[in-house]
Amino acid sequence: MKKGVMRPGHIQIRVLDMDEALKHYVDLLGMIEMDRDAQGRVYLKGWTEVDKFSLVLREADQPGMDFVGFKCVDEVTLDNLQADLQAAGVSTQEIPAEDLKDCGRRIRFTIPTGHSFELFATKKQTGKWGINPRNPEAWPRELKGMKATRFDHCLLYGPNVAASVQLLTQVLGMDLAEQVLDPEGKQLAGFVTVSMKAHDVAFIEHPEPGKLHHASFFLETWNDVLKAADLISMTDTSLDIGPTRHGLTHGQTIYFFDPSGNRNEVFAGGDYHYPDHAPVTWDVEQLGKAIFYHDRQLNERFLTVLT
Fold it and tell me: Which candidate in 25, 136, 147, 163 could, as Cys together with 143 as Cys, close a disulfide (CB 3.0–4.6 Å)?
């Protein structure tokens, strides 16, 4: 039931100190600073991304996520999806073009977990950073730190996960790739994709709405994840868990915190998903194995530290 949502487009994250945040996201994670705006926001991207930016940092008093946006195939699709949202009883707000620098108009709405989502179709394309689009080299030599390739997904905590998954799948045409169910069949977690990836956004049931668990950035190999672990230690960055493997999605992963307390993930590998694949289901009793496949035990900090 594809309706023209292509991929995650951007996430705006609140940070407490912009200079410290940039040391983290640029020097350690390896994102590329692309621009700044009159509000003081900084625009970053991974080197393989063709759009101008995928990560926006905003200095604020509290950390967390302002919104996450998904890119649609064209402006007509954007209009159609706004109409579909309204027909489903979802209130929408149109954010004018250039509210985000070099980005077209965006349609913003709140999903049942309390998070702000938005759709857009137009953003300036700058191409892969440091790569000539004609006869390209394999990678730029100037990359820093972990050499993150792209913003990949985010994990969000809030109530009404099943209703949020239903909205994204039935109204916006996304697919449920994996889920966690309790013994009564209630959906406690949902991993949703708009592509062949294991997930583009994921949810875990939580009583407090609108919370960010982590923003995730893709690396190319398991060895890159191990090097990321070395860099985390070399820079005295706050480590959460890993390196390890997930049972859910089977991605190879490590979690750590930015200086403001926002959790980041870098990961490699992971499953693929086609629209005709049935969702992979995990029983809640197996949640330890689902999240940390090797240890098969939950890290309490992983479940409770949110922004």
Answer: 147
Name the strand (E) or helix (H) holding 82.
helix 75-87
Confidence class for position 293, pLDDT limits 50, 70, 90: low
Overall average pLDDT of the 114-129 stretch: 96
- Helix-strand-coil percent breakdown of the chain, rounded to 5? 20, 35, 45
**Nearest CA-CA partner of 249 in 226, 227, 218:** 218
Written as six digits, the tokens of 18 are 């912009």
**pLDDT at position 185:** 85
Q: Which two tokens stand for residue 264?
A: 């980041």
93-95 and 106-110: which strand pairing? antiparallel
The three-class DSSP label of residue 154 is: strand
* Residue positions annotated with a catalytic role: 153, 199, 214, 246, 255, 265
Please report the pLDDT score of residue 248 as a whole number. 78
**If you ran DSSP here, which 8-state letter would residue 125 be given?**
B
Mean pLDDT of the chain: 93
Single out the residue of 5, 29, 4 nearest to residue 13, CA to CA: 29
Count of CA atoms in the C-beta half-sphere (13 A) of 277: 18
User: What's the CA gap between 180 and 182, in Å, rounded?
Assistant: 7
Q: DSSP readout, 191-247?
A: EEESSSBS-SEEEEE-SSSSEEEEEEEE-S-HHHHHHHHHHHHHTTPPEEEEEEE-S
In the chain, what are the domains?
Answer: 5-120 (3.10.180.10), 152-304 (3.10.180.10)
Between 17 and 182, whose confidence is greater?
A: 17
